[in-house]
Give the backbone structure.
Amino acid sequence: MTVLVITPPLVLLICAAMGALPVHGSRVRGRERVIGALWEHEQLLRLDADDPDLARVRLSETDRALPDAELRQRLLVEAALTRCEARWRAGDLTDADVRDTAGPILASAPARAYWARARTACGPLAADRPGHRFHHLVDNTYPGTLSAPAA
């Protein structure tokens, strides 16, 4: 049995590849691949939240040091935002729906601090226009999130 260990550099590589997927044939196929990758990422995050010890295998040094409860919260915030992006890219959510959905997800200070850290780290890797647009929508849900101090 082969076990794939997803390390932070691999996650960043996947993020970069999602934005740089070549369009062979139709744009729809590329879009479906990105949406599929987002759904799979969300499922991995939920598995990690169920078992923080498993999550620590693939997380950054900073995240590994978090207490279990805080780590679960961080993973579930990321999972919820990932699901929101997948639904938006699939056409299930409008821009207004994204703002309405992201608002409650980012209601807590720790969630906003997570988004500020994640957005700063992964933002440049969202090389495709939809990725930039989604990040912009979420950023505007709580203006100043990117400048908020990490909690």
In short: The chain is about 70% helix and 0% strand. The CA atoms of residues 46 and 79 lie 7 Å apart. The chain has one domain: 8-147.
